[in-house]
């Protein structure tokens, strides 16, 4: 294994900006409360938004999509669909306050382990300290340990959250392989993956056109905002993965949980416990360590 250089300031800024956009579109999704038709609708908007630039990249680099690239696009799309289905099942069987932080905290943890095995990345000592600080902060913000001790009945939510985290790590590693190793143009790769996901969900949506129509009338503002913010957020992360080790990028992108604490307190008027403040502090420390490692 090779010891990786620390994440650069440019990559760090890209990931943090992506995290801000991620938190913003998740707030919109929370307010909308949509289902499969809602997911299809904002994915369709995202395809339309990214298609012009993706087409330009395809014309500029006609040989960019070999067999391995198409394999990555297909696998990533399937894992993203599985991620959506597993996450929704977790929300049905477990508490949001357990499933979400477990998923967002375990995802980068599994991604770091996968990067060690797949890409042979070996973070520096300060890099490891930063990764651990970010992950510890995530679990403190989510109150996962307190929830498990106080209510063992929440274990189903934790199991589904962990399975969601595996999916997050899966598409993170596949996407990193595509844009970092295969050098597939980022926007082209992302847009084609979105298109495959949209096509996969289309039969179910067409069978329930009335639901789609009602979803658009009720949540068109959220559909449009997520359709723009979601691809912008992840495209920034994909670009960052071409500039820095995946084992650094994956944990830092979950700084969106830190933004979520602020949004919860300021926008949704949720109570912020001392443990959440401590978790936020750990996340800030972790990002600083990764930036100056």
Strand order of the largest sheet: 1-2
In DSSP terms, counting alpha (H) and pi (I) runs of 4 or more, how many helices?
A: 12
Distance between the termini: 19 Å
Q: Give a count of the beta strands, DSSP E runs of length 2 or more.
A: 2
Rounded to the nearest angstrom, the radius of gyration is: 19 Å
Strand content: under 5%
Structural class: mainly alpha
Q: Characterize the main sheet.
A: 2 strands, parallel
Average predicted confidence as pLDDT? 79
Helix content class: over 70%
Question: Secondary-structure element order, as H and E?
Answer: EHHHHEHHHHHHHH
Shape: globular
**Low-pLDDT residue spans:** none
What do you see in this structure?
Helix content is 83%, strand content 1%. With 293 residues, the chain is mostly helical. The chain has a two-stranded parallel sheet with strand order 1-2. Helix 4 runs antiparallel to helix 10 (246-253) and helix 5 packs parallel to helix 10. The longest helix is centred in the last third of the chain and has 33 residues, at 209-241. The protein starts with a strand and ends with a helix. The mean pLDDT is 79.
Please describe the structure with a list of short key phrases separated by commas or semicolons:
mainly alpha; globular; 293 residues
Would you spell out the secondary-structure blueprint of this structure?
Layout: E1 2-3, H1 9-32, H2 36-60, H3 67-93, H4 96-118, E2 121-122, H5 125-142, H6 144-150, H7 155-181, H8 186-207, H9 209-241, H10 246-253, H11 256-266, H12 274-292
Parallel strand pairs: 1-2
């Amino acid at each position: 294994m090779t010891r990786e250089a620390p994440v650069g300031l440019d990559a760090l800024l890209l990931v943090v900006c992506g995290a801000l956009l991620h938190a913003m579109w998740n707030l919109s999704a929370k307010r909308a409360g949509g289902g499969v038709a809602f997911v299809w609708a904002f994915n369709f908007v995202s395809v339309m938004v990214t298609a012009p630039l993706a087409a330009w990249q395809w014309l500029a680099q006609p040989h960019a999509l070999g067999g391995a690239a198409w394999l990555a696009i297909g696998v990533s799309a399937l894992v993203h669909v599985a991620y959506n289905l597993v996450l929704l099942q977790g929300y049905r069987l477990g508490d949001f306050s357990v499933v979400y932080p477990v998923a967002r905290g375990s995802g980068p943890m599994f991604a770091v382990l996968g990067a060690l095995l797949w890409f042979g990345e070996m973070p520096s000592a300060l890099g490891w300290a930063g990764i651990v600080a970010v992950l510890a902060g995530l679990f403190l913000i989510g109150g996962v340990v307190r929830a498990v001790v106080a209510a063992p009945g929440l274990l189903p939510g934790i199991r589904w959250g962990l399975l969601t985290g595996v999916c997050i790590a899966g598409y993170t590693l596949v996407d990193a392989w595509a844009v970092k190793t295969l050098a597939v143009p980022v926007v082209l790769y992302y847009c084609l993956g979105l298109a495959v996901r949209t096509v996969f969900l289309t039969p179910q949506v067409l069978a329930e056109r009335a639901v789609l129509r009602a979803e658009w009338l009720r949540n068109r503002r959220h559909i449009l905002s997520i359709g723009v913010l979601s691809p912008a957020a992840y495209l920034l992360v994909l670009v960052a993965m071409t500039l820095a080790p995946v084992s650094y990028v994956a944990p830092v992108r979950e700084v969106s949980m830190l933004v979520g604490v602020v949004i919860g307190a300021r926008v949704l008027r949720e109570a912020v416990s001392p443990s959440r403040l401590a978790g936020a502090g750990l996340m800030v420390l972790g990002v600083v360590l990764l930036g100056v490692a």
